[in-house]
Design brief:
alpha+beta, five-stranded mixed beta sheet, 208 residues, single chain, 3 helices, 29% strand
């Protein structure tokens, strides 16, 4: 999001109004910037004043990112009408919609991507493995090497990595063989699992 103005710059018509430090994006949204510890009561007073001013300015969505150190501000923010948008290991993101209409805030990331590698060697043999953990542990089931694509990782790189981790074999990615999509299969997110690949390995061939 491109920051256009400071919220304090647009309240010149009201002298000595204390507001939360924030920036505005190109979509009428507000991004609150809180970096230091703040008393809950001070925060609540500033938040109420800020929301009132932003409403007068015609702003829409408000984004509030709170680090672990600022977790004490979550409860007062929720009391003012904020709700959870998403959370990561080091912060929680809350949002608020100012207009009296249905909000149009974009949802958080909702898909998980996985791969399954179909590996062939020069003899036409298919690589299969047994799980050391998970639902297939101890079941005697043989399966293709599978795993989840890591954040920022290319699908082809993930396919090669999973084979290396599970079977210790170096491979070369060739192509996608198949694609499967499952809705909410794990209770948390849609599963875009496996864009099945074919790999040709330095030591044998792999089809992922």
């Amino acid at each position: 999001m491109n920051m256009e103005h400071s919220s304090k710059d647009l309240v010149n018509e009201v002298d000595h109004v204390e507001m939360l430090d924030a920036s505005f994006d190109a979509y009428g949204g507000v991004i609150i910037n809180i970096k230091n510890d703040m008393d809950e009561y001070v925060f609540t007073a500033l938040l109420q004043t800020s929301l009132s001013q932003w409403k007068q300015q015609g702003k829409k969505g408000v984004w509030l990112k709170l680090s672990l150190e600022l977790v004490n501000l979550v409860k007062p923010a929720v009391k003012e009408g904020f709700w959870y948008h998403h959370a990561e290991p080091t912060y929680v993101m809350l949002v608020y919609w100012i207009p009296e209409t249905n909000h149009t805030l974009p949802p958080n990331a909702s898909h998980r991507v996985g791969v399954a590698s179909f590996v062939l060697n020069n003899k036409g043999e298919i690589l299969v493995v047994q799980e050391k953990s998970g639902v297939f542990k101890g079941s005697g089931v043989w399966k293709l090497p599978t795993g989840t694509v890591e954040e920022g990782e290319d699908i082809s790189v993930a396919a090669i990595r999973e084979v290396k981790e599970e079977a210790g074999i170096d491979t070369e990615f060739v192509e996608v063989l198949a694609f499967r999509f499952t809705t909410r299969n794990n209770g948390f997110s849609d599963d875009t699992f496996r864009g099945d690949f074919r790999n040709v390995a330095a030591k044998g061939s792999i089809r992922v």
